[in-house]
């Protein structure tokens, strides 16, 4: 609903800017302990609440539940670590079985491990066939690993190349 959203707590900061579709996770070691929340809406904003809600609902259904969610995977990394393990994938997948459509945004993630890809695109998908998992903004290395994890399946690839810029 906001043009900018900042959440700062105990030296960590989470920032989202709608105009740049940007998610940031920052650390400030000099920050004091405590929590601060800042939400900004431009006085000339033309975005409506309906437009925002429509991004998270299935418009082809009469159900107005929040059934879609984006997941910026760059936020799943701690510092410069790579996304390689099943345990990392399980943390990413936590509670995603509650949605009908999950957009895994790989923007800023140059590669992933085989176990990470397998846990999401084979194991989770097999356990939750009702959840449509879609990978967007994939690098060539990420796309190759996803194809490898799904190559034994006869299902369509979760990659949406038209969104990836590749």
What can you see in these coordinates?
The protein is built from five helices and seven strands. With 166 residues, the chain is of the alpha/beta class. It has two domains: 45 residues, no CATH class; 117 residues, Transcription Regulator spoIIAA, CATH 3.30.750. Strand 5, helix 2 and strand 6 form a beta-alpha-beta unit. The protein is globular.
Helix-strand category: alpha/beta
Distance between the termini: 30 Å
SSE arrangement, N to C? EEEEHEHEHEHH
* CATH fold call of the largest domain: Transcription Regulator spoIIAA
Shape call: globular
**Sequence of strands across the biggest β-sheet:** 3-2-1-4
Radius of gyration: 17 Å
What descriptive keywords fit this protein?
166 residues; alpha/beta; Transcription Regulator spoIIAA; 2 domains; 4-stranded antiparallel beta sheet; 3-stranded parallel beta sheet; 5 helices; 26% helix; disordered C terminus
How is the topology of this model organized?
Layout: E1 4-9, E2 12-17, E3 22-27, E4 35-40, H1 49-54, E5 68-72, H2 86-93, E6 101-105, H3 114-127, E7 132-136, H4 140-150, H5 161-164
Parallel strand pairs: 5-6, 6-7
Antiparallel strand pairs: 1-2, 1-4, 2-3
Helix pairs in contact: 2-3, 3-4
Produce a short descriptive summary.
The chain has 166 residues and is α/β, with parallel strands linked by helices. The chain has 2 domains: 1-45, no CATH class; 48-164, 2-Layer Sandwich (Transcription Regulator spoIIAA), CATH 3.30.750.
